[in-house]
């Protein structure tokens, strides 16, 4: 069994420093950021479900992995400074303040990140979060910056490499500011992949650095291992964030294959934040966290960075923690597709990185207009405009609904198995109940081949039980081992259409007939991944994907999952997912578990998995994933076949007019993008 548990690191001591003078740039960084986050976790019963891990101070040696002796020695003196000295000391750095107790807190903040790494790397917990102040990602070798004193996450990455021999660390920085401190720290290091998205506005937003743009890709042997996604407009939404995950971060992250994931978890990228001015809702962090959950075997450490709207911050922290704990995800409604400015950024990033990552090898050229001309043009144009926009944004108080409570059904995974197959632990075995005569006659008429009536009727009744229990939220997901997977799939699709009229997503892995003819009312979306070539399709709701080497081609499969399946599924927003694995699908257990895990993003975790009886070896790994265990990391894999990539790309091209989340290039206009 995989190790369970989520670590929570918090200590009141880190609330015990604050701004002691007037500085408009720093007044938002308040102790309540921490208390509001922690109290929300307590209020929602989440703190109690976590493993509480104590803080400690980072040692000098640990801090010196990232910072210079001169800087450390200077900061060491701050507890003894007078107010005047502190002000003066502060002046040499940008947008930061010192306080007599901040050095102590900064040591605890860095130490918290290290405690978290220890807890995860020793297997004490599966993942965790550290709620810390001061934040870290802006601080540099010899400088405090942007409320940050020591670079907590950078120190943690070094520590993980040194103490645990971790070979590759992925740092995901979803804070709305560019963590330039982290970038500088690992710029020439290919063992740390740093990904950051950040408000940029063509360099008009703090910290106004040229090197925050997407053409800063790293240096020397670290070239390609720094991925910047600049947001050139405010108001980015859930769709924009998801698009960047699907089309940039996830493909690169899986290709990188990290042993550990560190998250610079700043929540100033959420709606209501005065710094970010973005519009992504707090429940997006449930999804961002979930999408990272199957990397590195689930070893994920989130360390708080920014987040200045206390309501938004607290909600976002709760969403993150609840996902770390493995609760079913909230459904994200009405995803509109990325805005034009986000598409421009996507296109730029992908084209810049196509020479470094095979997943981007076929990325489009950069946008045709001259980006530097655009930068200059915008410089004048925006001058007048931002003033108006900014005033409006300040005056108008942002409101958004509180994310609904996420309830976990009493049973996580229910299994319908032939009597000779044992039920794995932690799962519930479902016994088929008797069917009413009307259903029996209907079933006989439409689905039964002569001679197998008894077995099949039992299976169908078991499937109905599973569906009903999911509908009533008594169980989260189900797995059925059946003698004829195609018939069972047809049966479920018909039954769901007739009885529940839900939006259904069918994902079929492997060859075989699928319910492609039933997709007309828009409730059913069918994606099939196999090595079987199908004729060119025109339906928006039937997506057959052909991979030459079939489902055993890991790189091709991932390309399909991130480039097609996840975007389609998010936009379709199903209320039930039916995952089908046909006989001889060729998919390896690892990839299958990744897929099963990722599909739990949808329908509040209501997934029904159908597997052919001869495939019973996959019951245990599938059940484990349905129970919320992270999938094991994928083995190193070869780049996909060019012709497969091209086929997937053609499919994406065909579908992107109907499914906006498939888009990854800006329309050829050259005009100024509007959100
Ligand atoms: C950690 C963080 C923001 C600094 C903003 C300064 N820092 N204008 O979010
Ligand atoms: Zn920030």
Care to describe what's here?
The protein has 675 residues and is an alpha/beta fold. The chain folds into 2 domains: 6-327 and 336-397, Histone deacetylase domain (Arginase, Chain A, 3-Layer(aba) Sandwich); 479-662, Histone deacetylase domain (Arginase, Chain A, 3-Layer(aba) Sandwich), CATH 3.40.800. The chain has 19 helices and 16 strands. The strands form 2 sheets. It has an 8-stranded parallel beta sheet with strand order 2-1-3-8-7-4-5-6, with helices on both faces. The longest helix has 25 residues, at 371-395. Residues 670-675 have low confidence and may be disordered.
What does the radius of gyration come to? 26 Å
Total number of distinct structural domains = 2
Known CATH architecture of the largest domain: 3-Layer(aba) Sandwich
In whole angstroms, the N-to-C terminal distance is 47 Å
| Strand percent estimate | 5-15%
Going by helix content, strand content and strand pairing, the class is: alpha/beta
CATH superfamily of the largest domain: Histone deacetylase domain
Say what the CATH topology of the largest domain is: Arginase, Chain A
Detail the topology: elements first, then pairings.
Blueprint: E1 6-9, H1 32-43, E2 51-52, H2 60-64, H3 69-76, H4 83-91, H5 102-121, E3 127-130, H6 152-164, E4 169-173, H7 180-186, E5 192-199, E6 226-231, H8 238-256, E7 260-265, H9 284-292, E8 300-304, H10 310-324, H11 340-353, H12 371-395, E9 411-416, E10 428-429, H13 437-447, H14 453-471, E11 475-482, H15 485-499, E12 504-509, E13 524-530, E14 542-546, H16 554-572, E15 576-581, H17 589-599, E16 607-612, H18 619-626, H19 642-655
Parallel strand pairs: 1-2, 1-3, 3-8, 4-5, 4-7, 5-6, 7-8, 9-10, 9-11, 11-16, 12-13, 12-15, 13-14, 15-16
Helix pairs in contact: 1-10, 5-6, 8-9, 8-11, 8-16, 9-10, 14-15, 16-17, 16-19, 17-18
The chain binds N-(4-aminobutyl)acetamide and zinc ion.
